[in-house]
Design goal:
0% strand, globular
Length: 77
């Protein structure tokens, strides 16, 4: 799951419907990608960042939960 992307969507009032319409893909596809079942392609991620979250980095928005956990573990050790 892309926790940072979901958090920013909530902050900005962006819905999965908004993203699906912008990318011209099905809502279900966006939902599955946001929830980590499938990956976002680079061009999709870049379009989402540029259109909806221009002040956020791609790395932050599309960091997976497993990557966040690894960073926390390395800070604790």
């Amino acid at each position: 799951m892309h926790r940072n992307l979901r958090a920013e969507m909530a902050r900005e009032g962006i819905t999965m419907v908004d993203i699906a319409e912008y990318l011209n893909i099905r809502y279900a596809t966006v939902n599955e990608k946001v929830n980590g079942k499938y990956r976002f392609y680079y061009d999709e991620a870049l379009k989402i960042k540029q259109r909806f979250f221009p002040n956020q980095s791609l790395e932050y928005l599309f960091e997976k939960d497993s990557e966040q956990a690894k960073k926390k573990e390395s800070r604790i050790s």
